[in-house]
Structure formats: structure tokens, C-alpha cells
Amino acid sequence: MSVLKLKPCCKDYIWGGRRLAEEYGIASDKDILAEAWVLSCHPDGPSVIVNGPDQGKTLTQYIRETGVQALGTHCRRFRDFPILVKFIDAKQNLSVQVHPGNRYALAEEHQYGKTEMWYVMDAGPSAFLYYGFKREVSKEEFARRIQEDTLLEVLNAVPVQKGDVLFIEAGTIHAIGAGILIAEIQQNSNVTYRVYDYGRVGKDGKKRDLHIEKALAVTNRVPILRSGRSYPHVADCDYFTVDRLNLDGSVLRKVEGSVGEESFVSILILNGSGTIVCGGESVSYRKGDSFFLPAGSGAYTVEGSCDALITSIRDKGNMVRAGIDIGGRYTKVGLVDEEQRFLAYRELPFDPASPPEKAVRDAGSMVLALLAENRIDLDLCANAGVGVAGIVEDGVVKYSNNIGWKNVPVAALLAEQLPIPIHVANNADCAVLGEMAAGAAKGCQDVLLLTVGRGVGSGLVHNGQLYDGAEFGHMVTEEDGRSCSCGRCGCLEAYVSVTALRKETKEKLGTPMEWEELWSAAQAGNETAGKLAEAYIRRLSTGVVNLVNILHPQMVVIGGNLAAYGETWLEPLKESVRNKSFGGKHSSMPEVRAGLLGRKAGTLGAANLV
Fold this sequence. Notes:
The protein is an alpha+beta fold. α13 (566-580) links the parallel β32 and β33 (591-594).
């Protein structure tokens, strides 16, 4: 079904009237019909599909079952469904209120902030609304006037008539006046801070709450200038683009459009009647109807006579992405631009003994700090990716033997701080993506990566597709060999990880060493160190040759701590691959390289998770 007709969720706030039921045919059993949420995936009131095979499902259910591709590629930067569309019937004055921006709303309310637009569908002859301040006011004056009930004296009263449009950015104080009927398109949020309410009482007989401290924190206290910056659109911002459609039924009876893979389309009928045709389906419309056309629906036509608002989501350029790599000795956090360059990078000590929740929240706090330090608004951060050693499923680290985590809901924890899409993967998977994006494997489509650190992680990309969850470090290379942290014996990790090397060198040389120290000792003539170095390269080569024989990658990349010392181990490893891989010189051998990105590989790759 390409044209989904929606039944709204109805709200009976005390200031509302009955026009939406009487004039727009919106069914409601409530005595007051103040708002109709005609396109909504918000948990406080989702819309319901009323036609086709998905009839009876909420729009939220439909998108969950169909997949996020129904929203379009331009919506990938949103964690939740991006907009909420509603009709508002203000029989009485609405409260004077303000909405927070994303950063504040996330911290305080755990949901998006709210930027919105109003399209005036009807207004009485003397109707007006409040829109910002007449003049700049101090925070102290703002607070005093709220307490003294003199706030209205400094608010900007704007007369309105049918067809007027106002864009209300988060932080703008505002109020809809009595006798106004509005179509509102907004961010998908239900956060409002009330600062003045005419002394009214709610259904419980008590005065409705005010939210003074929060309003003081988020309100822009300078005058707001109306502008035509959205031309030729009715409204255009990072959250929604709105266009007006007018068919007079005679000279102009039909218009054609197209719903591409980039964005869904919302059609809100303000007046008139006719049909919408898309994908061979024809659906009739009338005043008050709301329709959702999933991304990729293709060509559509609207025919008849109507006033309508058409909403879509446009692309947003110059976005940054956050990458987080948790584990080993450090948690690495970075901001990456569209050219795969780090705009900011920071490392935090990682303590596997501390609660996992703390490590995740510390990483989220660092993302916010880096954005603030670089004066990058949260709205310009498209997504956050997280790499963690271990088995990852649906944003949860199910098991990590190296850092001791079990069933840690990383995505959910991070979502409490960042209102953006969050993706979680194994950190070696992230490392291979990083080396492919801007490192040793740039331009390759078939890459095997082994990252040597506290453990031995592995990442595999075949034909440009990430093979999720490869754990080649836990293949047995020596039967009945050393015990591994995974519980088995003889794993590659038990011989070539930094942990294993430090343990073996302590046993045989009296001092725990990493590769560069062992190599230096061998070069200085220490016979035992020389034998240990040879054995280390032989064991690493055995693992790599086994994988080459099985996978036939275009390139093998060795990353992690070992990569920085490629001049000492790289040539012997290449020689082993050439001489011991199946087919030898008669076969196409993969190129073997040391990773170029060092400890930043996983962070860059995490930022590229989609």
C-alpha cells in the first residue's frame, strides 16, 4: 500500500473547542477536541492506519514492521520518527509557553526538543498570537514579570489571518490566541514549558503547573524577526520542509509528484476533496484527512480541488558523526566529518573493573563535550557508532571475555544522552571499516583485519559488505595449547595478543614485554628474546595463512598495537603468506599491510556504522 490514510489521536485540553469535529469531520467522543494528532508516532498519541492491508496498525507499528527504509535516507540522522503533525483549535487562549532545544530536552526530558511551524487555517477578525518579545529582556526581568503576572506587557502580539505562517524555533516564547485554527508541523516531541496560564485550573480543580526554572534556562529573550527565508517553501528547516498545494478544481485540477528513496511524504488536506493516486492505488480525500506515503513509493498524483500541506525531510549537509571505541586500555571518542577527517579526538582511561554503565555514560558525555568545545550543535551530529570487544546483538553487548561485560545495553544507555541514531558493533568490525574508509585498505572491497591488542579481534568485509561477528582470534591454532580467556585452549589469541606476549616474556625473560621491547632485545643479541620473536611471528603467520586459505581476501591488514612496528614483523609475515598459502605463486596472493590508523581505526570505523 503506497497511500496510507491515518486516523488521528484526539486531545481534549481545556482551551479547545469543537470545530475539528464539526467542520473537519474528525471523529471524537470527547466533549472538547483541542488537538488532532493527524500524523504521529509519538508514544503519547500515535496515528492509526485506516485503509489497506495494514488497517488497524499504528503508524509506529507499520514502520517497525516495514523497516526504517519507509522513512527514507534523509531520516537516517534521526533516532525516532522525525515529525508530528496536528490540527489545533484554540477556542480560548493557550498558555504562554516555550519549547527547549534538543540538547536541553534530552538531558531533562529524555526526548527531542521542539521546533515547529504554524499555518493559520482560520482566525477571527481580531485574532492574534504571541510570538517572542517586543524588546530584549534580561533573565531577571523575565523571572520578575512571571511572578508579578506582567509578562504579557513585554510579549510581541501579532495579528493573524487565514494563510499566515509563523516559524517557531526552539527557545521562542509563544502562545496561540483565542479564535485561531492552526495546522502545526513540529519535531516529534511533547515537551512544553508553561510560564503563564491566565490563572486557569485543570480538570482536577487546581491551577495548572508552571515550569519557570526550565523556561528561564531555554528561552531566547530577544525579539524574533519574521522573515521569508523559507521561500519558495512554506517552511524549511533541518527537521522538515513544508510546501503548499492549491488545486482550484478548474484551471488547475491535477498535480504530479514523486516520492523518492530520500524521504517519505505527508499530505495534509486543509480543504477540498478529490483523489490521490500512487502505485496503481486510488484513495479519496476530503477536508481534514492526513496521508503518509512511504519513501520509494514513486510517482503520485493529487486530483480535485484542495488546499494541502505537503511535508518531507530534506538532506542536511556538513554533518559530523561520532565514533566511540570502548575497551583495551582506553575509551576513544572522536568527531568525524564527511571527508573522514577527525575534527576532534579524545582518549579516556578504561577500567574494566568499573561498571559498564559508567564507561558508556562517560563516552556519551565526552561526545557532548567535544561538540561543545568545537561549537558544533548537536543537530549537526548525524549518528553515533560504538565499537566494543565481544558479541554484539541489537545494540547489546551480549558477552565480552576481554572486558568482562555481559548483556550491557550500550545503545539504550547512550540514547539517554544522545538523541541521534546509535549503532553498536564489535570493535574489530569497526576497525576494518576505519582502515577501509581512510587507512591501509582504502579502495578495497574484500578485506580481512586482525587487530592485536589485549585480545585478537577480527573484522571481515566481503564484496563491500561487513561480515558481522567474525571471531578469528578464537580459532584453535595449536591443539591442547595454552588456555585462552574464552575458556578454550590453543586459540590464536592465547599466543599473539599483547596479553599473551607479556605473560610469556615474563615467564621466560623475567620481564613482561610488548613487541617492540622484545624485538629490541632480540636485535641486541638476547638469544631467548630472538627465539620468542621468531615464535611469535610464526604463530601469527599460521593464523593469517589459515584465514587466507579459507577466505581469499584482497588484502590482509594487521592493526592494533602491533601495527606501529610493521617494519619489524611485516616482511616475515608477507613471506609466510607467499610461501605457505595454498597455490603459492600460482595463486593470487593478498596484499599484507600494517594498519595506518593506529588506535583511531576503531573510532573512525564506528563513526561509519549505519
